Amino acid sequence: MPMWIQAFLWGAVGGGALLIGAVTSWHWRIAPKVVSTIMAFGAGVLISALAFELVDEAAESGGLLPTSTGFLVGAVLFVSANGLLARKGARHRKRSGGQQPAESDQTGSGTAIAVGSLLDGIPESLVLGLGLVSAGSVSPAMMAAVFISNVPEGLSSSAGMKKAGRSARYVFGVWTVIAVLCGVSSALGFLLLDGAPAALIAFITALAAGAILAMLADTMIPEAFEENHLLTGLTAAAGFVVAFAIHTAGG
Description:
Blueprint lengths: L2 H25 L4 H31 L1 H27 L18 H26 L5 H24 L4 H26 L4 H31 L3 H19 L1
């Protein structure tokens, strides 16, 4: 099987976790505290993965300057795009309560939420394709981190969409399209950077890591803290340790 198809499939599997969370949330009422707990755990998993799987390896292979620069650029790009989408109605796209606006409250908010959800998923998918470029295989720890964190994202965001009165067609359509585009993003990461200089791969990898960290701080952690409060840090730490254990075992 060609490597770019493998990259597409891995990205689609990671994005498909969002759809699993959406289906679960739509058909069964999940207690907000459970959603927040899983969200906090997923945040810890992603923090560990971006530290050990992305930033550390990017610095080793491409150098400190490309890695540091890419990380900051990624954070700036995400925050800028997220700020624009927030003004269009996507600020609370991962919230499970009644924070998301309905289309009648803010015209165009449905589109903004869909674009914002895609914005959240692209960096994670991109690094799966980059893993095939740099290592010839997808990191089990990174794949686990993406999958584990995407399930609660789909749970929480879809619960909020449902409370805002959005239809099942909209909700499942959004997550299905995003899952496919996550696969496309992963495939493009492989196709465009296969054979690229190590410094450029390090820059792009770190750029994705910076965007992921900004996404965690701006969207996932607020939802995790909503119900978990003082247990948020402990739950996130547990996720961090689990991801680190996977990373260590895989190494």
